[in-house]
Amino acid sequence: MKFIFxxxxxxxxxxxxxxxxxxxxxxxxPTSEIAVDWGVPDQSPVFNITDMLxxxxxxxxxxxxxxxxxxxxxxxxxxKTSEALNFSSGLFLSISRGSALIYGPGLLxxxxxxxxxxxxxxxxxxxxxxxxxxTFRVGFPAASGNNYQGARVVFDLNIGKLLLLPKSCRLSGYxxxxxADPDQIDITDRNHxxxxx
Length: 197
Fold this sequence. Notes:
It is a single chain. Strand 11 (185-189) and strand 12 form a beta hairpin. Strands 1, 4, 7, 9 and 10 form a 5-stranded antiparallel sheet that branches. The chain has a 5-stranded antiparallel sheet with strand order 2-3-8-5-6. A two-stranded antiparallel sheet has the order 11-12. The chain is globular. It is mainly beta. The relative contact order is 0.24. The chain has one domain (6-195): Immunoglobulin-like (Sandwich), CATH 2.60.40. 4% of the residues lie in helices and 44% in strands. The protein has one helix at 108-115; strands spanning 6-9, 34-37, 57-66, 72-84, 92-97, 100-107, 121-126, 130-139, 152-164, 174-177, 185-189, 192-195. It has 1 helix and 12 strands; from the N terminus they run E-E-E-E-E-E-H-E-E-E-E-E-E.
């Protein structure tokens, strides 16, 4: 699991454009079926934006590879770790795959709520032995004016697969599993179903 630290601050000057992404370098656990290229050098956050003006849009492309021969349902979770001036309520997030819009555009604060569910925000069903690129866009509306000077938000992203809970579990639906998590679900009783490690 790679955490992405997303920092946005509204200041009154522009930074030079983001350098081009390095060659694909999938980062994953050795036994993982799902590998993620975050589009940045190892140990670097995908989003580390310290200057954003009203009207700006920041775009990042993340590529996911399914090493399994079976299709996998992909999902993303976001978790806010810090914020100043309620900035996530002033930003919009969208997620797309090619020209198809998957999520949004909606408030970044709503994305935190939506992705906090057991299954996170669904991305796609990815065929076995294939890869897909997902584009994450964060926009700061031009009409925002100077209300967010000095504002910032920091959050983590995790892309993983969804596993269908067996009927013997009390809950129904899917459980989110990170790229390095196994596909096996342990059932101790109807109230305790968890990923087997």
